[in-house]
């Protein structure tokens, strides 16, 4: 059984930092991506950052230069370091992992396994 578990959300003032963690267990495909998406009420999933196990990373335009994604392949754990947070970063953040037939490119349709989400709130 596949489980994707996020942690690390919370509330912070603008300019502050948070670090999210996500561990995926029960999946063993050799090539994969892990990514972070975020969602606000009434909108679809926005791609935040993605890391493949070959070292490739991608970022959404709105977070480039502020967020950093890393991947511990041995622990199957993704980390999202979020610095210089802005009120516009407020959202539910979801971790996701591709499955056997998935694809990356920060496309939520390519991701099969999703966590329950962790809330990030940035106040001005």
What does it look like?
The strands form two sheets. Strands 2, 4, 5, 6, 9, 10 and 11 form a seven-stranded mixed β-sheet that branches. A hairpin with a 4-residue loop joins strand 5 and strand 6. The mean pLDDT is 95. With 124 residues, this protein is an all-beta fold. Helices cover 0% and strands 52% of the residues.
Briefly say what this structure is.
By secondary structure, the chain is an all-beta fold. 0% of the residues lie in helices and 52% in strands. Strand 7 and strand 8 form a beta hairpin.
Structural class assignment: mainly beta
Approximate helicity band: under 10%
* Sheet of most strands: 7 strands, mixed
State mean pLDDT (0 to 100 scale).
95
Strand content: over 45%
Radius of gyration, whole Å: 13 Å
- Describe the global form: globular
- Stretches where pLDDT falls below 50 for ≥5 residues? none
Order of helices and strands: EEEEEEEEEEE
Strand element count: 11
Spatial separation of the terminal alpha carbons: 41 Å
Count of discrete alpha- or pi-helical segments spanning 4 or more residues: 0
Layout of helices and strands, plus pairs?
Elements: E1 3-7, E2 10-13, E3 18-25, E4 33-39, E5 46-52, E6 57-59, E7 67-72, E8 77-82, E9 91-98, E10 111-114, E11 118-123
Parallel strand pairs: 2-11
Antiparallel strand pairs: 1-3, 3-8, 4-5, 4-9, 5-6, 7-8, 9-10, 9-11
Task: Give me some keywords for this one.
124 residues; mainly beta; seven-stranded mixed sheet
């Amino acid at each position: 059984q596949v489980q994707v578990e996020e942690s690390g959300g919370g509330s912070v003032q603008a300019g502050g930092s948070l670090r999210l963690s996500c561990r995926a267990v029960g999946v063993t495909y050799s090539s994969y991506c892990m990514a972070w998406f975020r969602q606000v009420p009434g909108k679809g999933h926005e791609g935040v950052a993605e890391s493949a196990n070959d070292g490739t990373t991608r970022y959404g335009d709105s977070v480039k230069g502020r967020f950093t994604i890393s991947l511990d392949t041995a622990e199957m754990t993704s980390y999202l370091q979020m610095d210089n947070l802005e009120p516009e970063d407020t959202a539910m953040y979801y971790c996701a992992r591709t499955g056997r037939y998935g694809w990356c490119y920060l496309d939520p349709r390519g991701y099969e396994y999703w966590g329950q989400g962790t809330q990030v709130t940035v106040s001005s």
